[in-house]
Automatic annotation (TrEMBL):
The keyword DNA repair does not apply. Keywords: Membrane, Transmembrane, Transmembrane helix. InterPro entries: Na/Glc_symporter_sf, Na/solute_symporter, Na/solute_symporter_CS. Belongs to the sodium:solute symporter (SSF) (TC 2.A.21) family. The chain crosses the membrane at residues 17-34, 54-75, 87-108, 129-154, 160-179, 191-211, 245-266, 287-311, 343-376, 396-414, 420-441, 448-468, 480-502, 540-557. This is SSS sodium solute transporter. The keyword Lipoprotein does not apply. It is found in: Membrane. One of its GO terms (cellular component) is plasma membrane. It holds the Pfam family SSF.
Length: 558
């Protein structure tokens, strides 16, 4: 596609362009101001571990509000309906609570600078190198998804060729991330969170009015797509499994356990925000604070997708199995074109730009940290002055952005980019989660099992994907990703156990602070005095409240 289809061109006016211009100025200004606080590599990569919990909590969620969330989940909403809620209520909140309650004390307490660095301390260089390389590859691939979605918005708005839109969008993100490092990314993510909500809320409200409210929406979805799209369970269309039991099992185990825990607890893009917090208490509260807005985000992302699925004749044709000039990735653009007046349209466009920039900046800031600390410093240039690694980090930011420009065009081959994203998660996150769970709770696990299990699990997920892509297994929807994730987890665990039984473990004295049973409780306990005092800051209370609320939402919409 060279130019945006005229049917999708947004009728933006001077007010809309002015709002977009103001936003870009603010983004670059934040990057410039953040640069003044960057004097060491720790400042650049982890904000000097100085940020308050409310900032890191909002950044934690905003970093995830990229193309994956906005374009992918609205596309899922249009295609599958209410079962998409599983990505939030089953596929996010429980894992975020587990991260805050159980895993953050290990990450923050050990003062590791990245997730791969934990594996190096636990297993040595074999597992560390495998994870660092796979993580770096995953980040530039996912950054490419965010960049492609950002370019699509510019393409639709201005009519620029996609490749020009990709380069311009990358240049803006590169500018503020290179200037201010993680601090610039985090503070921009806080701004972007509010901009995104301000953009999506009016779209949801106007859309509901247009279809006759909630009742009107449910009536039309039931009539045109079937009542199965109005209940979250069993989600057979989403998983591709004909059996309700297998579908439920796939959602609970494949998505809710393996993919979800693999993403939220081991993905350094998210963990990096918590690790930049000012204390262990703040680090533990980061994902727990983020869980509350996270569980309500689908009401302004998935619901607009469902609205577009019944309001747009082209998308309705697509859902019915017919040919259409649009894809599900066009869902939000269709709604914005048809429903929003000038002024509000500018806010919506700015919100989309903010979302994609937040997602891409999160991927690039995580990439530059892992590249610098876990690859360059560990394997190529050791024992150099701190300023040298700060310079390498900025160069890695440029390199990651350039690679992301290339990977952006891979995403162009998918009509629903969520299919592509879930495939990547099954490759990279699912086996990593299996390794982490064993590593933290089984002191006997050996260094050889660490890297061999990771490689085997990844190979299992890729095998499932190839079998599904070639038609050997008929798994429509996102069932192949769920099955691949489950296979990766099981294979990783089995291989790790077998290899452990045949190889020698590390001495227990080297595992203190890295394994649950060998770490004194005091080292896993956060401070409750000073700025960490107050019953309302209790991680157990925050986590328990989030689980109760999400259980209620599952009952209401299940």
């Amino acid at each position: 596609m060279i130019l945006a289809q005229e049917t999708l061109r947004l009728n933006a006016g001077p007010v809309d362009y002015a709002l977009i211009a103001v936003y870009f100025v603010l983004v670059l200004l934040i990057g410039y101001l953040a640069r003044r606080s960057v004097s060491t590599s720790l400042d650049f990569f982890l904000s000097g571990r100085s940020l308050p919990a409310w900032v890191t909590g909002l950044a934690f969620i905003s970093a995830n509000l990229g193309a994956i969330e906005i374009i992918g989940m609205s596309a899922n909403g249009a295609q599958y309906g209410m079962p998409t809620m599983h990505y939030y209520w089953i596929g996010a909140i429980p894992a975020m609570v587990f991260l805050g309650i159980v895993m953050m004390p290990f990450y923050y307490g050990s003062k590791v600078r990245s997730v791969p660095e934990y594996l190096r301390r636990r297993f040595g260089k074999g597992a560390h190198l495998v994870n660092a390389l796979s993580f770096a590859a995953a980040q530039v691939l996912i950054a490419g998804v965010n960049l492609f979605a950002l370019a699509l918005v510019i393409n639709v708005l201005l009519g620029w060729p996609i490749w020009v839109s990709v380069v311009v969008a990358a240049a803006v993100v590169l500018s503020y991330t290179t200037l201010g490092g993680l601090s610039a990314a985090v503070y921009n993510e806080v701004l972007q969170f509010f901009v995104i909500v301000a953009a999506l809320l009016p779209l949801t409200i106007v859309g509901l009015i247009q279809v006759g409210g909630w009742q009107g929406l449910t009536d039309r979805v039931a009539a045109e797509a079937g009542r199965q799209q109005l209940a979250a369970w069993p989600g057979t269309e989403l998983t591709g499994f004909g059996s309700s039991f297998l579908s439920t099992l796939g959602i609970v185990f494949g998505l809710g356990f393996v993919l979800s825990f693999g993403y939220w607890t081991t993905n350094f893009v998210e963990v990096q925000r918590a690790m930049s917090a000012s204390s262990m208490s703040a680090a533990r509260r980061t994902p727990l604070i983020g869980a509350y807005p996270k569980m309500f985000i689908p009401f302004v992302v998935v619901i607009p997708g469902m609205i577009a699925g019944v309001l747009s004749p082209q998308l309705a044709t697509l859902k019915a199995g017919g040919e259409s000039e649009l894809t599900y990735n066009d869902t939000l653009s269709v709604l914005m074109r048809d429903l929003l007046p000038n002024g509000i349209l500018g806010v919506a466009i700015t919100g989309l730009l903010a979302a994609f920039m937040a997602g891409m900046a999160a991927n690039i800031s995580a990439f530059n940290t892992v590249f610098t600390y876990d690859l360059w410093q560990t394997y190529i240039r050791r024992d150099r002055p701190d300023g040298y690694y700060l310079k390498i980090g900025r160069r890695a930011t440029v390199m990651g952005t350039i690679i992301a420009i290339g990977t952006a065009f891979i995403a162009a081959g998918y009509s629903n980019i969520m299919d592509y994203i879930q495939q990547l998660f099954s490759f990279f996150n699912a086996p990593l989660f299996a390794t982490f769970i064993l590593a933290m709770f089984w002191k006997r696990m050996t260094p050889a099992a660490g890297w061999i299990g990771l490689v085997s699990g990844t190979a299992a997920a890729i095998t499932v994907s190839v079998l599904a892509e070639t038609g050997v297994w008929d798994l429509p929807g996102q069932g192949a990703s769920f099955l691949g994730a489950g296979a990766a987890f099981v294979v990783d665990v089995v291989v790790s156990v077998v290899v452990t039984m045949l190889t020698r473990p590390k001495p227990e004295t080297e595992l203190v602070g890295l394994v649950w049973s060998l770490t004194p409780k005091a080292d896993r306990t956060h401070s409750t005095t000073g700025r960490d005092a107050g019953w309302y800051r209790s991680p157990a209370l925050l986590g328990g409240g989030a689980l109760v609320l999400v259980a209620i939402l599952n009952v209401i919409f299940g």
